[in-house]
Amino acid sequence: MFESVTIKDIAKALGVSTSTVSRALNGSYEIGTETKKLVLEYAEKINYRPNPIALSLKEQKSHSIGVVVCEVANDYFSQAINGIESIAYNRGYHVIITQTHESFDRESANVKHLLSRHVDGLLVSLSAQTTDTSQYKYLLDKGFPIVFFDRAAPDLNTHKVIANNFQGSFNGTEALINSGFTKIAHLTNSNNLLISHERFEGYKAALDKHGIEFRPEYLKHCNHGGMIHDEVETVLKELLALDDKPEAIFSGSDRLTISSMSILKKWSLKVPGDIAIAGFTNSDVVDLFDPPLTVVRQPAFQIGQMATEMLIKTIESKWPVEEFTTEKVDTQLIVRSSSVKAI
């Protein structure tokens, strides 16, 4: 079971009284500057956070779950959160949702805030900027329950629920190839994310299967995952300015797919006449686009449910959980006219 650091622990380590630690943490004028500095630096070093809610709870349980996602407005994550809540509330847990907006600093701050609220566990989907996962390793080493979903940290030993990114990307790229396209660009998220690598590998494998050479200039990363419109416009302009420009685009994320479609429409480019498009998205309205959009759809609601079940099982386990699984969930390819070569 996870045990948070207490004022008593700090007092014992520093050889001072608990009242001295408490006053130092509260900024009391009764404590000397040097002592106060000593306490505050040690508290920061061991990641101590006060637990105002937990203090009043007999079992030190808040019956709440912290969720860390890049953006609630993202179709995938809004559906995943619905899945999370459908399980959590039925099991007596409240859900506290935070957004990183693809910022590592905001992600770190969100995790610290959730810990200060004494959540019983975390459901995390990493930001596009995150390369340092040491805060999660620290918590996992202490026995704190964390489950990653969608964007997982490959180096951390804990439960994970992800889509079959390789197969989904392979299927989406092959749908374009089967329509007669051979010059296919790949627009994807930050290179920091494991999903970007898995989806690139799927795209490349589809090219390999059909004897199409991978062209590095056709691979474009958007480090903010499509949240910054100008970033998507810039990479699309770069692709369309190539001497041998692509005939089609396979997009590796929800935001990028929708943004690309709207930008191409704004530029009065015909889809699929001027350029075809297919990509990952969980938007419920893509069949209403002109033309309707070919998509790789992830079972976001199901992924949210599965991750929450895993987390609650870990939280409620009477013994330390030492065996972890990675659940890989199949995607669904829906072919529509945006990827079909005009005759």
From TrEMBL:
Pfam families: LacI (PF00356), Peripla_BP_3 (PF13377). Gene3D superfamilies: 3.40.50.2300, lambda repressor-like DNA-binding domains. Keywords: DNA-binding, Transcription, Transcription regulation. Residues 6-49 form the HTH cro/C1-type domain. One of its GO terms (molecular function) is transcription cis-regulatory region binding. Residues 5-59 form the HTH lacI-type domain. CDD domains: HTH_LacI (cd01392), PBP1_LacI_sugar_binding-like (cd06267). This is Transcriptional regulator, LacI family. It comes from Mucilaginibacter gossypiicola.
